[in-house]
Amino acid sequence: MEFAPEVLALCTFAFLAGFMDAVVGGGGLIQIPALFVLLPEIAPATLLGTNKFASIFGTASATVHYLRRVPIAWPATVPTACAALICSFLGARTASALPVQVFRPLILALLVGVLVYTLWKKDLGRLHAPHLEPARQLWFALATGAAIGFYDGLFGPGTGSFLVIAFVGLFGLGFLAASASAKLVNVITNLAALVYFIGAGHVRYDIAAPMAAFNVAGSLVGTTLAIRKGDAFVRHFFIAVVVLMILRFAWDIGRSA
């Protein structure tokens, strides 16, 4: 089977996105712009649906890989996932009424704060040391899932990275364990969105299917490397991804000004 040059290029971006997303999140920062640049004739909703289809297989593959190798902090992860699932629907409904440009400066400020805090706290995420009592952990998990789930439904890019920093900063998980929990939450919220996109006919399967295969390949390489290298590697990769996200959002703000 022969693929158009645009699809072959998208498969390369899907591999890179799968790798990044498996390690620390943020794969959408690579895959979504690539779809919009290389396929400008396709409706935005269909591009977003195609992206979800292509990426969810990689996210699910990374989740399974982590589950086999990394202990999951279930008391923090399960309520976060439940709240995120519900609030992602609310965010998606709100998205049609609010322009995303309103949120970009706030997200940029948040990312800069996350970067400064991560660089300042040298030991952040190096040790797996949960520190919240069960009752407080439950409420923090519900609040985290609600906020990030709503953001994922409303806007989306960088959701996996925000989940990682939440699991590290709020719950005291190591970066590797945080990445595993983030993947599990992210695949649940992505599945909810994909159900909507499929039902609305907003998936180009001829493009999404080969991208999904490459996304899975990238995710397998990413999870294997993350598990082998440990928390220090994931922390450095996280800092690099946050810097990339800051540059991306700053570019978007400057372009729309």
UniProtKB/TrEMBL annotation:
Swiss-Prot/TrEMBL keywords: Cell membrane, Membrane, Transmembrane, Transmembrane helix, Transport
Localisation per UniProt entry: Cell membrane
InterPro entries: TM_pro_TauE-like (IPR002781), TSUP (IPR052017)
Membrane topology of this protein: Multi-pass membrane protein
Spans traversing the lipid bilayer: 72-92, 98-117, 160-177, 184-201, 207-226, 233-251
Highest taxon, organism lineage: Bacteria
Tagged with keyword Cell inner membrane: no
GO CC terms in record: plasma membrane
Record-stated family: Belongs to the 4-toluene sulfonate uptake permease (TSUP) (TC 2.A.102) family.
Stated name of the protein: Probable membrane transporter protein
Biological classification of the source: Bacteria, Pseudomonadati, Pseudomonadota, Gammaproteobacteria, Nevskiales
